[in-house]
Each structure stands twice: as structure tokens, then as C-alpha cells.
Amino acid sequence: MITIQGLNKWFGDLHVLKGIDLNVKEREVVVIIGASGSGKSTLLRCINFLERAQQGNVFIEGTKIEPRTKVINQLRQEVGMVFQHFNLFPHMTVLQNVLEGPTQVKNISRGEAAKLGAELLKKVGLEDKADSYPAMLSGGQKQRVAIARALAMQPKVMLFDEPTSALDPELVGEVVGVMEELAKEGMTMIVVTHEMWFAREAADRVIYMDEGVIIEEGSPEKIFSNPENERTQQFLSQIL
Amino acid sequence: MTNCAKGVEELNIDLPWDLSAIPEYFFFFKDAALLTLQITTLGIIVGLGIGLMVAFAKISHHKIFNIPASAYIFLIRGTPLLLQLWIIYYGLTAIVTIPRFPSAVMALGIHNGAYIAEIFRGAIQSIDRGQMEAAQSIGMTYPKAMRRIILPQAFKRAVPPLGNQFIIALKDSSLASTIAVHELLLKGRQLGSSLFMYMEMLIIVGLWYLIMTTVLTYGVSVIEKRLQVSDYRSEH
Ligand SMILES: Nc1ncnc2c1ncn2[C@@H]1O[C@H](COP(=O)(O)OP(=O)(O)OP(=O)(O)O)[C@@H](O)[C@H]1O
Ligand SMILES: [Mg+2]
């Protein structure tokens, strides 16, 4: 589904991604863990070209993504992204947020939009909030709207960048619940998170990153109970 | 109350001016006030157009856009409006003669364009980067994301400083009196000298400005409130 080859990214002199190779299969759920500053966000952002890697390639379903505006805009329709700080559009209602992509980018009809909007809000459990503005929502509700907004483009892959780390602990569950549901439905997902129970429940594979390199990867059982690499062990002992 | 009234009466006797001329001549200034309003309104419209374009030019990463924009802002903000007005009305006569009223509008528009550009630029750049990223992450093009996501939020933030700028523009329109546009200030000076009642006429001028700035301030605050619907948390 997604293949990343030899990705290298520098911010000035800072070498942030050092030759990342990654292959994510259809319906696979990959969780990325790693210390702060190890390049997890940058990796996700290079996949949908919010950052441009200086070297390396991204392939979606075997097609190499050329860094041209048109290709990138098309790619972004197929790769949904959920941000740590939600980034909802504050001047639009919940429903307008969700339908902004389908109506403005895909130009779907009003009838279709109404149906899609209702469907998605039901999926994230926010039917009754359709006409609320983001400022009226809790963090957990905001993030669920953000997930619905990304899903509205009917992407092939979803990227999550620490979707619960800006939330109060009691609100984490409702967001992770929606993500688990998505994983069950067979969505291909790449998730940066420190919610280990999500990784245990839903991940097919866990990747440990350190200083711009993938140090270790494997099934959640293997990584959590039996990590080979010393640095992985250290990291896990800190967060578990 | 009676004390106060007495105070005014006593004051009246001592004053060297005939304050009763103020209500008497107040509406003599209607046309002049209208002209002030016209210069200001047209000047602001020109200024908004210039301001929006210059703001985008200044934000642009292309030197052919952002260097002229910076130069324009530097020149206009660094020199007095009166100089700019005289350059347009007197200075350009060797090339083209621009009549008084359009000269005043142009000067006010060009002058305010620089300030409005900075207001827009500041407002656009104050919008969280995540907004543009979220818009692009659903496949929006840059111009569309600007139009649908960034600008509506930026305009909202720009309303209070724009209101401020409009009030400044209204008062600055009085400089048109120096090129004999018959707006409020010139009218006050002329009537004042012909009636030997400078103070009385200038007070009338002041009252007209106060009325207009008050209405403008109120209008801006109404717009601000209207735009805030999405900011309020629900009561329940
Ligand atoms: N736009 C940028 N300009 C310069 N440096 C950046 C930029 N974005 C990230 N970096 C740097 O790149 C490195 C990797 O950042 P990144 O955000 O990918 O880390 P991360 O693994 O997501 O960390 P965290 O867990 O804190 O989110 C960090 O050292 C960071 O300071
Ligand atoms: Mg990060």
C-alpha cells in the first residue's frame, strides 16, 4: 500500500530522518514509538508531503509520488491525517468541517454530502454536535471530528500523529475507541502514539525509532515483552 | 442639577464666544460632512484593495512580489500623508493634473493601503500554521485553503485594527482642506473667518467628527460581535 524508500530529511544541518525504509501493507496497522525528537512526526509529514524529504521516495500502491503540486494534492486526498492539536477549522461548524473536503475538493453533490456527513458523525458518535462550533467541544470530541474530517475524503491510509497526547486522560478512551473501530474495519493506519494499550490491541506491527533511524520493529508482543535492542528496552522501561 | 445649570449660565457670560451659534450653524456643515464621508469611504475602499494585494505580495516568497511590497510600505509609512497628498496634487502636475477630490481619495487610499497591508499581513500570519496544514492534508490547493480557511479567520482578527485605521482615515481626510476640497475642516475655517466665529465653527467641525467616529466605532463593534458566533462556548 505505502512504501517508503531511503527517506532522508534535514532541517538545516540537523539530520532528522536517516534513510528510512518502510513498507505498510493494505489493512495493516503500524504503530510508531520513540523518544521526543526522534523524527516520528517528520516521518509522517514526509508521507503526505507537509515536509519535503531531500532524498528518498514515497510510493502509494506502487506509484512513485513525484513532488509536483498536482500529484501531491491528489496524494493528500488518499492519505488522511489527524494532528495532535486537532487543527479543526474554528469558523465552521462540526458538519462543515467534516464536509469541507468532499464539497470543496471532490465537489460531491449536496445530497451525497448530507448522507456522508450523517454517516461519519454517527461513526464518531457526534450526530448531535453537527451544528456546534469547535470551540464548544471537548478535546476528545474535537479529535473525533478531526478523524471524521479526514475520513470524509475516503482515504486509503490514515496517519495519526499523537492523536491523544493533547487530551485529558479521561478523554483518551473515546478517541482510541474510534481508532480501534477503524482498525477493525480494515483501515490502513500509521499511528504515532504512546498509548500502549492501543498498540497492544490494534497494532499489527510496532516500530521503534531513535534519532531518525528505525531501530527495531516487530509484533506488539515481541516489542513490548521481548525487545532485542538495548535502546528499545530502555525506552520501554521509561514509558511502561 | 440646578447648580450645574447655573454654572453653565455663569460660564456663558464669561465666555468670549457665542455658543448659541453652534446649534444655529450646525447643519450648514451637512454637505461638507458628506464630502468628508465620501473621501474617507472611497479612500478606505482603495486602501483595502491595495492593502490586500500588498499583504499577499509581502507574504510571498518571490522577490519580485515581496521587495516592491516592502518598498511601498517603507516609503508610505515613513513619510507624512500631507506630503503624499501634495505630491499627487501639486507634484505630478508636470505629468498629469489630477483634480482635487480624486487627489484626496488617491492620497488617502495609497496611504491607508500601506497600513491596511500590514494589518492584513499580521492577521494572516497570526493564524496557526496547523490550519493551512489541515486544509492541505485534505487535498486543498494553497489558494483555496487561503480563501476558505485562512482569510475568513484572518479577516475576523483584522476587524478591530481595521476599525481603528478607518477612524484615523476619517480624521486624516481633513488634510484635503489644504488642497481646497470643501470638506469639514475647510468649511469650518471659511465660515469661521467670514462670521468672525472661529471657535464656534471649529467646535461644530469637532462635533461632526465625533458623531462620525462614534458611529464608526459602534459599527465596528457590532461587526466584531457578529463575527464572534463561533468563538462562544455553549451555555450548557
Ligand atoms: N520545521 C522544523 N524546523 C527545524 N527543525 C525541526 C522542524 N520540525 C522538527 N524539527 C526538529 O527535527 C527533530 C525531529 O522532530 P519531530 O517533530 O519529527 O520529532 P518527534 O519524534 O515527532 O518528537 P515528539 O515526540 O516530540 O513529537 C527535532 O529535533 C525537531 O526539533
Ligand atoms: Mg511529534
The gist of it:
The complex is a heterodimer of chains A (240) and B (236). Chain A is α/β, with parallel strands linked by helices and 240 residues long. Chain A has 9 helices and 10 strands.
Question: If you had to describe this structure to a student in words, what would you say it looks like?
Answer:
- The complex is a heterodimer of chains A (240) and B (236).
- Chain A is α/β, with parallel strands linked by helices and 240 residues long.
- Chain A has 9 helices and 10 strands.
- Chain A is globular.
- The two termini of chain A are 31 Å apart.
- The model of chain A has no long low-confidence stretch (mean pLDDT 94).
- Chain B is 77% helix and 0% strand.
- Chain B has helices at residues 2-14, 21-25, 30-59, 63-77, 81-89, 100-126, 129-137, 142-172, 184-195, 198-227.
- In chain B, helix 3 (30-59) runs antiparallel to helix 4 (63-77).
- Chain A binds chain B through residues 48, 50, 69, 73-74, 76-77, 79-81, 83, 85, 87-93, 100-101, 104-106, 132-136, 146, 149-150, 152-153, and chain B through 128, 130-131, 133-141, 144, 148-149, 152-153, 156, 229-234.
- The site of adenosine-5'-triphosphate (ATP) has 11 residues of chain A, from strand 2 and helix 1.
List keywords for this structure.
heterodimer, A: alpha/beta, six-stranded mixed sheet, four-stranded antiparallel sheet, 9 helices, 10 strands, B: 236 residues, MetI-like fold, 0% strand, flat, binds adenosine-5'-triphosphate
